[in-house]
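ok here's the first one, seq then struct tokens
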Amino acid sequence: MGAHRNTLRVHFDTDDLARTRVLHTPDPLWETLLSLHRLQGVAGQPVFGGWRSRVRRRLDRSAGMLLTLAPPRGYSVDFLTPGAGAADLETGLDTVLSTPRSVLAADLTELAASRRLPSWAPSLAAGEVEVLRELGDALRRYFSVAVEPFWPAIVSQARADRVRRGEIVLDGGVEALLSTLHHQARWRSPVLEIDYPVDQDLRLGGRGLLLVPSLFCWQSPVTLLDAGRQPVLVYPIDRRPGWFAGASSARSAIALLGRTRAAVLAAICARPLVSTTELAAELGISPAGASQHATVLRDSGLIVTDRAGGTARHRPTAFGSTLLTVSAS
């Protein structure tokens, strides 16, 4: 038997498909949370490397509280993303800073189960006004440095994704939307299954599902741990090269790939859904080498891999296609 694969299972009732919708724009608090995750790691360097360097130079000490509440792996407190669809950061912050004490305490207890928390955590769990004010100020400062300067680019790419999703719904309905949401998502009516860091079940119970596009979401869609809150699924969108600073960064990114890996990317762009075996034969490298290069490209957000019948087939993301084009120009 194969190894157990952790899975997020979203259970749909009869009314949930009709109540599933795609948010018209990214949510400021979700982008803030997920950008904190991206800031603390090194994954997706061609996509986020330039952004990381720029943001890290500009952060002040107040970001330390946020980095504690939103570690790069494992649980992040749900109260930082109380819902989705806030018109602006301040609207979302009003909700965050009005979080009931019982919810603050429960979320911080969950976080403390996997890491040691600093001395201010009990005061935050108790809802003390001063520490809540510090949290609000930290979120505003971080957003102004890490998210707000790039917001027009984020919104533009999310709206392009929404148009594409809308066409899928018109052609095949909501079930087609769910089955094509992400390469790690599998629609097995009435359950949407997604490869996930932990086993988790989200039962919609007639509430419907809000799909939230995100530029900072990486590798896999994410949701809240607390199934009693608004059911949301935040999913990654394709990103244009140089989304944070213009196309010049794309030329720098392609230089990081190296000649062979760039050739692998070019072959995948030329023949979408090419198999690993076909890649190896075309480029004169071993199947193991082709698989290794494909893994690096996939982890960098340049390709996605679909598996069917035991065969891995690769296709470029919009980022990968455009990156290669810009680099060749």
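and now the second one, same deal
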Amino acid sequence: MIMLESSKAFGSFAVNNLEEAKDFYTNTLGLKVTDHPMGLLELHTPSNQAIIIYPKPDHIPATFTILNFPVKNLEKTVDALIIKGVTFEQYTGQIQTNEKGISKSKHGPHIAWFKDPAGNILSLIEEG
């Protein structure tokens, strides 16, 4: 029987341009990104193993959120990223967002979605 309870699992996702991804995750989001010798990027966050970003020239973005960032103050974080040129998604169906792209549902956390340069959907989720 194979047991994985001690395995340090990590996530990964594709982008169509590593240089654009490195610039966005480093300079726009302010995250630590390092080059990996295998031609990949490693995205470092305080609570995880490194998240691998790998090149895929024919990349098609997922239609769901691939990475979530918990934040203490959603409104301030959204404002700071808007100043850096991030555009937040606008939803009008089952999920409703305000003019900034923030969903303030009674049934879940306050959340805002945005895309990286490859079209991957990311989110900010207000903690607590």
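notes on #2: Residues 12-126 form a domain with the 2,3-Dihydroxybiphenyl 1,2-Dioxygenase; domain 1 fold (CATH 3.10.180.10). The two ends are 39 Å apart (CA to CA).
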